[in-house]
UniProtKB/TrEMBL annotation, chains A, B:
GO terms for molecular function: DNA binding; DNA-binding transcription factor activity. SUPFAM superfamilies: Chorismate lyase-like, Winged helix' DNA-binding domain. PROSITE patterns: HTH_GNTR. This is UTRA domain-containing protein.
Length: 238, 238
């Protein structure tokens, strides 16, 4: 009795060995069942699993092809900074540097996607890992969307941690970039000469309402943003 | 007759208006149906859609709560560089700078996750947008996994474009960072003084076999990696 897993491994070997290239048709179920000496339903299950993993592409009537991925998706999980630091086994530290209510001017209105003149809460915070500067946070919160932020001092809890307890969001935008540091970043993050910052900017909205804009700057020489995809085939290999 | 869409909008207003905070229980279906003057099945459909969107969390018996998202996922789509440039309306240019077969030494073996001494193809390529340097690519391809790469000159087609026609991959790793440029990056990317590079490193595997390692460096002052999430609620708002 031939298992679908061994058929899956066989087909995979054909792909690894370039018996069939990306975009190419592989034999139909009937022929594979004959070649491997198993039932068509066993072949079908193996093909379906490889298709679910994105290794094969199946089209009704058009047959099964080896997938040709022309774009690669990388999923970045951005945690609350406290969790990010603690999960790496380091001690989390937090300092509020600045807190001020402002009216949105032309620059900040554009950043947070809110009308000029509306009240914003501006915060600057430093997050540390084992006492070493890890992230400088510069944040604006819409006081129209989140009036209760006015009454929070943010001395002991960072704004990200507080925000997740307030409202969910329905839309977000992330921009990642490498930048020369400004004077405050150079000093607060204790950057070495010529050390750039890795910047994450994030905006969130709930329905049409802008909630917050944040710029997170990290020391370029130590910060890495990593996305690992588990091996789709681990089950086959074990 | 009250539509489930108007109920969805009502519940959303309750969340926006902070009637219920993240983590908090909202009233049960029966009470909501009475409050909104509609059937329980209409409420149920509205709640289910908001749960599917990640705005609510439903648990059998435990009721429905406003979701509290403590990590934010950002999906980065990394296209073939030619598509990335052409989709932005610019003309794509490509230059092969260097091509060499090497045996993996301790440094390159670590990068590509292959044993020392195994043959690698090393390539350096420049990708341009409207004639302006956009990306400097430094790539190693395993000639054990992809022996046919030895016969490709890569003069007119970049290695990424070629690779997608060769084998699929089942595992990938991406590392994003900000770095001071090395001398070649400074010259080839025509960087301004103090301009850092935005670096994407990618490794891919097919089953246990390492395929390629690539370092993609981009001019920091102009390059932005962007991830936009569509508004989950767009349907409600229209």
């Amino acid at each position: 009795m031939v298992s679908y897993k061994s058929i899956k491994a066989e087909i995979l070997n054909g792909i690894v060995g370039r018996q069939w290239a990306p975009g190419e048709l592989i034999p139909n179920e009937e022929d594979l069942a004959r070649d491997y000496g198993c039932s068509r339903s066993t072949v079908n299950r193996a093909l379906q699993e490889l298709a679910d993993l994105g290794i094969l592409e199946r089209r009704r009537k058009a047959g099964t092809r080896v997938a040709q991925r022309t774009s690669r998706g990388a999923l970045i999980q951005i945690q609350i900074v406290r969790s990010e630091i603690e999960q790496s086994g380091r001690r989390y530290g937090y300092v509020l540097l600045h807190r001020e209510v402002q009216a949105a001017d032309s620059a900040t209105a554009g950043l947070i996607d809110a009308p000029r003149g509306k009240p914003l809460l501006h915060l600057r915070c430093l997050h540390l890992a084992d006492g070493v500067p890890y992230q400088l946070e510069s944040r604006w919160i819409s006081l129209v969307a989140l009036p209760s932020a006015r009454d929070v001092d943010f001395e002991s809890v960072g704004p990200n941690e507080w925000l997740v307890t307030q409202v969910p969001y329905s839309r977000s935008e992330h921009i990642f970039s490498a930048a020369p540091p400004n004077a405050e970043e150079r000093e607060r993050l204790r950057l070495r000469p010529d050390e750039p910052v890795f910047v994450i900017e994030r905006r969130t909205w709930l329905a049409a309402q802008a909630l917050t804009y944040v710029r997170l700057a990290h020391p370029g020489l130590s910060y890495r943003m990593i996305s690992r995809e588990d091996d789709l085939l681990d089950e086959t290999e074990s």
